[in-house]
Amino acid sequence: MTKKEIIWREILFQTIEKKKIKFTQKEIAQKYGFSLSTVFNALKIPREMSIIEGKRGFRVKDAEKFLYLWATHRSFKKDIIYQTYVSNKTCKQIEGEVPPFVIFGAYSAFAKKYENLPADYDKVYIYLNEENLDEIKKRFPASKGYPNLIVLKSDSWLKDFGGTTPNVQTFADLWNVPEWYAKDFLPALKEKILS
Q1: CATH no., domain 3-73
Q2: Which residues pair with 149 in a beta bridge?
Q3: Residue whose C-alpha is closest to residue 91's, from 80, 76, 106, 113
C-alpha cells in the first residue's frame, strides 16, 4: 500500500471504529515515521473535497465520503504478489490451512468477524509479508485454473489490527475485487461499520 493509503486507513479506522474525529498531522507522522510533508500531501484530496477541515490539527467531517474516496483510490491489484488455483478445497478449508501469520482480507475477513454472510464466496484473499511467501507456495503450489487463493503484500502495520484487515480496509478491498458477489458484501459491511 502507498503511504497515502496507510494514512487514510489510520484516519478512517480511528474515525469509524474508535469514534475519534480529531487528529494532528504530527501525531500521524510520528506514529508511522513519515515526514510531515507526506502526511500533508496525503490530506490534500480529502481537504479539497471537504471531507476533513483544518490544517495541522484537523477533524473528519464526513467519514462515509472518506471511505468511498479511499475505496476508489485503492491500488489493490498492485499489492497482489501471488495467486493460484487450489483444487478440491472449499474456502473454509483453504482458510484453515494457511499459516497463522497471514492476515485475512475481503470475504474471509468479513466471515471471520460476522456470522451471517450476505452471499457465498469462492476466493480467499490473504495478506502477508513477502519473506513468508515461500511458506504459502509450499502449502499451495502454483497451479493453472481459476485463481481461488490470492495473496497480497502486507504493509508493516497491518498486523497491528489482528488476524483480519480492519473493516475500513475490508470495505476498500471489496470495492476493488472483480467478483460479482462483492456487491452483496459491500452494503452489508457498510451497514455494520457506518450505523
Answers
A1: 1.10.10.10
A2: 84, 124
A3: 106
How many Å apart are CA 61 and CA 48, to the nearest integer? 12
**Mean pLDDT, the chain, as a whole number?**
96
The proportion of the chain whose per-residue pLDDT surpasses 90, expressed as a percent, equals 96
Q: Each residue of 105-133: pLDDT tens digit?
A: 999 999 999 989 999 999 999 999 999 99
Residue 25 cell numbers, joined: 498531522
- Distance, in Å, from the CA atom of 170 to the CA atom of 138, rounded to the nearest integer, reads 27
| Residues 135/35, Cβ–Cβ less than 8 Å | no
- The whole-number pLDDT of residue 195 equals 78
DSSP 8-class letter at 18: S
How many whole angstroms separate alpha carbon 105 and alpha carbon 125?
Answer: 5
Across the chain, which distance is largest between two alpha carbons, in Å? 54
Q: Is the pLDDT of residue 52 over 90?
A: yes
Q: What nine digits make up the cell of 137?
A: 507456495
Cβ atoms of residues 38 and 65 within 8 Å: no
Q: Are strands 103-105 and 124-128 parallel, antiparallel or unpaired?
A: antiparallel
Domain ranges of the chain: 3-73, 77-194
pLDDT in tens, 151-164: 999 999 999 999 99
User: Cα–Cα–Cα angle for 64, 72, 188, nearest 5°?
Assistant: 50
